[in-house]
Write a structure and sequence with these properties.
Two copies of one chain form a homodimer.
Chain A (H helix, E strand, L loop, with lengths): L1 E8 L2 H13 L3 E4 L2 E5 L2 H15 L4 E8 L1 H5 L2 E4 L1 H9 L8
Antiparallel strand pairs in A: 1-3, 1-4, 2-3
Helix pairs in contact in A: 1-2
Chain lengths: 97, 97
């Protein structure tokens, strides 16, 4: 089932590790702090626990949503070409202060 | 149906307007750039078009996901008390540079 991960974490290092974990599970970046991809129930549970462990006591939040086919068909997106291009290049344009 | 809105927008003013639009539609902030709440199909469509219009040519991305009851039951969240407290207070701790 498609799985959406969104997170908001102040610590650059922890945020980077969250992204790496999502990539390890085959998810694709859809926003700077949001990933999506196909995971079965067990893999989704595994990833959720790994993300919880990575967060630890760090300041932040991570949420994981399974998305059924019907929900996926009804999703909406608007984005600008420049944003999509940079997302593909993997170049972050902001940092936390 | 529960609806999740996530966005990533560089321009502070536009980002603020996105948040205001989500609040106008009764959504609650679940991360600094993520809102959730109950919307019927028409309201979800309306909000999506409003968000698209607010984004305009600005650099960024906004995505809207309907979440059925089953998907909602299977969602996962990990967050720290300090983060949740600040979210309730509505105080942003970062800005785009």
């Amino acid at each position: 089932m498609q799985t959406l991960v969104i997170y908001d974490i102040a610590n650059d290092r922890v945020r980077g590790r969250m992204a790496d974990a999502c990539k390890d599970y085959g998810l694709q970046r859809i926003q700077w702090s949001a990933f999506m991809g196909d995971l079965n129930h067990n893999r989704r549970e595994e990833l959720s626990q790994r993300l919880r462990s990575l967060l630890g006591e760090e300041d932040g939040c991570v949420q994981v949503f399974p998305l059924c086919d019907k929900d996926m068909r009804l999703r909406f997106e608007a984005s600008t070409p420049g944003y999509r291009r940079r997302l593909e290049l993997g170049r972050e344009r902001f940092k936390f202060v």
